Automatic annotation (TrEMBL):
It comes from Shewanella ulleungensis. Residues 2-98 form the DUF1330 domain. Pfam families: DUF1330. The lineage of its organism: Bacteria, Pseudomonadati, Pseudomonadota, Gammaproteobacteria, Alteromonadales. This is DUF1330 domain-containing protein. It comes from the Bacteria.
Length: 101
């Protein structure tokens, strides 16, 4: 069953964040693909329906939740992830299982 990694956050250090996006995009995309994932959406556009979301929103589809967790823990992704965490705040991050087909 597919799983979706969903995250939204606010950028608090633009200069540092630039080292993540676009600076680490190749690392992020490469490690996502390594774990069978596909980046479905990544945007700073905002259309709040109910509630208030973070500035950046990302949705990544993985074959299953184990693959999503493996990507998050991948040592190759760790340096880029550390930059993202240091440059952002108000982070909401979770994995949601897809519907059984």
């Amino acid at each position: 069953m597919s799983a979706f990694f969903i995250i939204n956050y606010d950028v608090v250090d633009q200069n540092l964040y630039a080292k993540y996006n676009p600076g680490s995009n190749a690392i992020t995309a490469g490690t996502v693909a390594k774990h069978g994932g596909t980046i479905l959406a990544a945007s700073d556009s905002e259309v709040d329906i109910i509630g208030q979301q973070g500035q950046i929103k990302v949705i990544i589809q993985f074959p299953n939740s184990q693959a999503a967790k493996a990507w998050l823990d991948d040592p190759e992704y760790a340096p880029a992830k550390a930059i993202r965490l240091a440059a952002t705040d108000n982070i909401n991050q979770y994995i949601v299982d897809g519907l059984a087909q």
